[in-house]
Amino acid sequence: MKTSQIKLHPRSKHHGLYDFNTLKSYVEELQQFIIHAPSGNLSIDFSNPKAVKCLNKAILAKDYNVKDWDIPNNNLCPAIPGRADYIHYLADLLSVRSSSENNSNPVNIVDIGTGASLIYPLIGVNEYQWSFTASDINVKSLDNAKRILHSNDLLDDKITLILQTNQNAILKGVISTNKYYEAVMCNPPFFKSLEDYQQQNARKNKNLTGNKNSSVRNFSGNDNELYCSGGEKRFIEDYIYESRNFSKNVGWFTCLVSNKDNLKALKSLLKRLKATDHKIIEMQQGNKISRVLAWKF
Q1: Residue 40: Cβ within 10 Å count
Q2: Would you state the torsion angle of the CA atoms of residues 134, 140, 143, 145, taken in this order, to the nearest 10 degrees?
Q3: Burial classification of residue 128, based on how many CB atoms lie within 10 Å of its CB (0-12 exposed, 13-18 middle, 19 or more buried)
Q4: What are phi and psi of 255, to 5 degrees?
Q5: Would you say 243 and 295 are in contact if contact means Cβ atoms under 8 Å apart?
Q6: 154-198, pLDDT tens digit by residue?
């Protein structure tokens, strides 16, 4: 449950407890999922994927002016406070880069693997008026992202959707060599295989419900959203190698790194490939610490 002890970015809209009475006024169906936690505070059952999705729908309506947000039950349901933090820390990174530039210039961001939720562009447009090129390899995910855009017509001129048809590429086919992008962002698949995911999901379910045999995915997720060959480390290594080809088109390449043990090898690779700069930005939500790796050539 979200608590006041969670250390989110100073500009985050998600400090403190969720105001469920206000949230349910935006999405009435949230009422059926609201419970009293042992502390006496209102909450939801975070092991219930329908409850989590309904909460997200209400948060996006209240805090980001997003209408009619929804995703298929099998798609990854993002934890919004953490996704918003990535956006805010990216804004901090770009302000350092562009401190001597005209801040009225449009900021172009690439979101790799935007998913059915379209979560980063929705937050980034609302908070900073950035323009996004959002890609994914899954046709159905992009169809749902398109439906969200059509329900929020003011976003149409800010977000462009691109289907990545090359299963062996991350940036090629998405980044235009005739355009400049201030940054690329990415939340890569974490797990190495379906078996790897199932083992860790069982441990998480045991912590949430006490039932290690439950196969429920409380935040759901398609296979391509959850795992890839080699897992997070292999994906980011491929991303770094490919990023060299677009050094003139992108200011900062960035990526979430969930496993801190991967950082040593990734920093070594950046050094070997002669990256001109790199940074590690830590983000904390309760006991969970994740980080953004940023680099440029």
Answers
A1: 7
A2: -50
A3: middle
A4: -160, 140
A5: yes
A6: 787 899 999 999 999 999 999 999 999 999 999 998 644 445 445
pTM comes to: 0.85
Q: CA-CA distance, 76 to 49, in Å (whole number)?
A: 10
Render the burial of 56-82: b for 16+ CB within 10 Å, e for the rest: bbbbbbbbbebeebbbeeebbbbbbbb
Instruction: Measure the CA dihedral 242/264/93/281, to 10°.
Output: 140
Q: Any idea which residue has 């502390």 for tokens? A: 39
Secondary structure percentages of the chain, helix, strand, coil, to 5: 40, 20, 40
Q: Which residue bears the tokens 């009293």?
A: 36
Distance of CA 189 to the CA centre of its chain: 11
Distances (CA, A) of 33 to 54, 79, 82: 8, 17, 22
Over the stretch 73-109, which tens digit does the pLDDT of each residue have?
A: 888 889 999 999 999 999 999 985 444 444 567 899 9
In 91-122, which positions are buried (b, 16+ CB within 10 angstroms) versus exposed (e)? bebbeeeeeeeeeeeebbbbbbbbbbbbbbbb
CB 55 within 8 A of CB 213: no
